Amino acid sequence: MTKDDLIKKYNVPGPRYTSYPTVPHWVNNPNQEDWKKEIKKTFELSNSKEGISVYVHLPYCESLCTFCGCNMRVSNNHKVELPYIQTVLDEWDLYVAEFIEKPIIKEIHLGGGTPTYFSPENLTKLIDGICSKGTVAEGPEFSFEGHPKNTTKQHLQTLFDLGFKRVSLGIQDFDPKVQNIINRVQPYDMVKEVTENAREIGYTSVNFDLIYGLPLQTMDSVIGTINLVKSLKPDRIAFYSYAHVPWEAGSQRKFTESDLPKDSEKRALYDKGKSMFFEMNYGEIGMDHFALPEDPLFKAIENNTLHRNFMGYTANSTQLMVGLGVSSISDSWYCFAQNSKSISEHKSLVDKGIFPIVKGHVLTATEVNSRQHILNLMCHFYTEWTQDEFLETMIQKALPKLQVMEEEGILNLTANSLEVTELGKMFVRNICMLLDPKLDGQVREKMFSKTI
Q1: What is the pLDDT of residues 381-411, one digit of tens each?
Q2: Is 2 in the same domain as 24?
Q3: What CATH number is given to the structural domain containing 242?
Q4: Neighbours of 399 (CB within 10 A)
Q5: What is the pLDDT of residue 316?
Q6: Do residues 214 and 173 make contact, with C-beta atoms less than 8 angstroms apart?
Q7: What is the DSSP string of 94-158?
Q8: Residue 173 main-chain phi, psi, to 5 deg
């Protein structure tokens, strides 16, 4: 079977596995007392050893990017900033009140929306408010997502002074026709200025987010984009597959399936990008990520410490990740909890002293076990087991399909291990699906984006 044949066969809807169980399969919903119990348990087990991570969702944007599937609000009224930040800080107080000691803050990540929609002064209020209730760990990893159009030098300097050393810039594609159809116009010179400002100030890691499979994207536009990226040489590159989910993100109805590269054509864009990254001396990090050899993410692969959560790949692992703000997801390792997607409901609940969670999932012992094996595959393309009755049962159940994948050159299977081959890396999500009892081999349309 040729590579193109494999792509057609395995390009089916499937989870991205930033969590396990995946969000559509959350059924064991925690109530307020359940959630307090879960965060206390994990905090007491892990705070002194590894600290905690904090993710803050800042949902506001000045314009709508039509490819985006994130929870965001378009507004040019910047008076919304301060009330929203105050609600986030009040939510943080709810967590701190449950902790038996000051949290050791290992990671903070600002996501969106557009974090740099907020003024440097208001971002200072936010970060000072979080850090004042805890102790910042030695060698913390503070990062934020920046829109090149509004990430000013003052933003960069202010956040650097607050401890941020990593910035991720949303590039997507430099081709003007692609930028126009996704309503994300940001010329190369603008990105160059922000990148150079970050390096001048002292940022140790600059990441570029690129997307393949966008509407009107071609091989020439991807090659042109990556050649421009080469001239700026970011420390990290995330090369994501565009997730077309118009039933979830109404903005994606601005274009149709006919505007999108499909199947082997889409995969060819990724393969070309990947080969160009290798030529530029980047190493592959997990799925869809690349880093230069001196970057901590690259070293995490070498040290076998790479971790993946709702913030993406990280060189650190903390069992407790507190999500603040609308739609944020918190993770205690044993339980997930997602906040309301409504700004008004989020505020109303926090004002009443209630955790603003609207759904989640308390994991069973079996699910915790499955989670670790799927995480191993997503981070290291390898997992092994010893006297693991559940996984052995899953392997036996999926054995005919796994054996076919082995014959196709996608994986290597032994009595107690599974390793993804170089060819198989593009199908890692398909492999995980076979070890996911929640799916039982069945995935409904309009549940997940395509795997490739």
Answers
A1: 999 988 777 777 888 888 999 999 999 999 9
A2: no
A3: 3.80.30.20
A4: 13
A5: 80
A6: yes
A7: HHHHH-SS--EEEEEEEEES-GGGS-HHHHHHHHHHHHTTSEEEEEEEEEEEE-TTT--HHHHHH
A8: -165, 140
- Three-state DSSP class for 15? coil
- pTM summary value: 0.91
Place of tokens 């709702």: 310
| Judgement on whether residues 391 and 268 belong to the same structural domain of the protein | no
Q: Are strands 289-291 and 312-314 parallel, antiparallel or unpaired?
A: unpaired
Contact 104, 47 (CB under 8 A): yes
3-state secondary structure of 82: helix
CA 359 to chain centre: 19
Amino acid in position 223: I
Give CA–CA dist 274/285, Å, rounded.
11
Tokens of 57: 């969702």
Residue with tokens 């309503």, as numbered in its chain: 183
For residues 45 and 1, state if they share a domain. Answer: no
- The answer to whether the CB of 235 falls within 8 A of the CB of 295 is yes
**Pick from 324, 347, 380: which residue ends a domain?**
324
Distance between CA atoms of 366 and 353, rounded to whole angstroms? 33
- And the tokens for 419? 């390793």
In this structure, are residues 88 and 81 in contact, taking their beta carbons and an 8 Å threshold?
no
Measured CA to CA, the distance from residue 7 to residue 301 in angstroms comes to: 27
Give the DSSP letter string of 363-384: PPHHHHHHHHHHHHHHHHSEEE
State whether 120 and 182 are in the same domain: yes
Residues 344-377 pLDDT 10s: 999 999 999 999 999 999 999 888 988 999 999 9
Q: How far apart are CA 45 and CA 99, in angstroms?
A: 11
The alpha carbon of 402 is separated from its chain's Cα centroid by a whole number of angstroms, namely 28
Confirm if 290 and 425 have CB atoms less than 8 A apart. no
Distance CA 4, CA 229 (A): 28
